[in-house]
Amino acid sequence: xxxxxxxxxxxxxxxxxxxxxxxxxxxxxxxxxxxxxxxxxxxxxxxxxxxxxxxxxxxxxxx
Length: 63
Known about the structure:
Layout: H1 10-20, H2 23-26, H3 36-56
Helix pairs in contact: 1-3
């Protein structure tokens, strides 16, 4: 099964890692050093940020 390409830029990943407190684990570029929980928190933070940006631009669909 082919691997999917990432949707997050490296800059965003490092910025979120810094906000979440595990930047020192990944600063050398080795993302294999983070826990599954940290990876999940990174994805959640990226989703929250994307939703916030969409809402600020009034592009979030209304339910």
